[in-house]
Amino acid sequence: MILVWTKSLHIAALVIWCGGLLLLPVLMNQREAAGHGPPLHRLHAFTRFAYIVVISPAAFLAIASGTALILLREVFTAWFALKLLFVGVLTGLHVWTGLVILSLFEDEKHFRAWRMVSALVVLSLTLLAILWLVLAKPTVDLALVPDLFHRPGALGEFGRGLIRRLTP
Q1: pTM above 0.85, yes or no
Q2: For 68-86, how does the pLDDT look when each residue is reduced to its tens digit (9 = 90+)?
Q3: CA 21 to CA 42: how far, in whole Å?
Q4: If 0-12 CB within 10 Å is exposed, 13-18 middle and 19+ buried, where does residue 148 land?
Q5: What is the dihedral of CA 56, 57, 58, 62, to 10 degrees?
Q6: Which residues are within 8 A (CB) of 28 and not within 5 positions of it... i.e. 6 or more apart?
Q7: Which helix (H) or strand (E) holds 155?
Q8: In degrees, to the nearest 5, what angle opens at C-alpha 94 toward C-alphas 93 and 96?
Q9: Reduced to 3 states, what is the DSSP secondary structure of residue 76?
Q10: Is the separation of the CB atoms in 101 and 51 below 8 Å?
């Protein structure tokens, strides 16, 4: 029964998180139309409230319940690792949106329509990739993964070598 409740919480949190992330670029695009004064302050307050009080806690709940589901279902497959990569991208987009909100409502800042469309396309493609991976559970050929990822400790060696090459 705990699996059902955890999965229900995960899905509900995902709906709020993803829906909110799709709403934010539209709200940010309204910045220019709000002009100055009280309408701008209302838009700013509403956008920050949505991000801080609704969307970010939903993201936390989605990730926490998703982590619990990993432990409950013991899902350790290649398609799942790929899904986690896209969840990382979604989390990065969430952080980027928050940073844009912090700077957008200063004087003379804009969020043009092309940025809104670009953000919505990238978010939608990321969400569709996650949804497809979860529903299709495709077989991923591990032979396509570079040898670096098959040897224990190889990633650390790669990182140390990269740092040596980048430092003078």
Answers
A1: no
A2: 999 888 777 888 888 999 9
A3: 19
A4: exposed
A5: 100
A6: 47, 100, 101, 104, 111, 115, 116
A7: helix 154-166
A8: 60
A9: coil
A10: yes
